[in-house]
Amino acid sequence: xxxxxxxxxxxxxxxxxxxxxxxxxxxxxxxxxxxxxxxxxxxxxxxxxxxxxxxxxxxxxxxxxxxxxxxxxxxxxxxxxxxxxxxxxxxxxxxxxxxxxxxxxxxxxxxxxxxxxxxxxxxxxxxxxxxxxxxxxxxxx
Length: 141
Fold this sequence. Notes:
Elements: H1 2-13, E1 17-22, E2 30-35, H2 43-55, E3 59-60, E4 72-78, E5 81-88, H3 99-140
Antiparallel strand pairs: 1-2, 1-5, 3-4, 4-5
């Protein structure tokens, strides 16, 4: 699912993108789950992405918060909470997203957040069904 978000965002925006999600270990530390080929994030970029996640606000390139970053980061949020961060690289140095590109990026981030949340909810529902099936089979024995 996350790979599909990365590929579709990259194609839609015409730029390289990165998808970061909370670690399964602690739920707070971000991990790079998908990114365009050859695109990696250093410690500074991860710190900017983490700031965007923790504060539920855009950060990085072209924003007022940590503008020296190479990427622009948008938190992936739904009504139920934060699910990750989407980052986008510039097409070339010194270029920023135009207003219509920013709106498209924001719309894509909203759709990606809902899709990722649906996967989380489906996984949780599957675990509940498994627990119920285990309880029912234990009672029969």
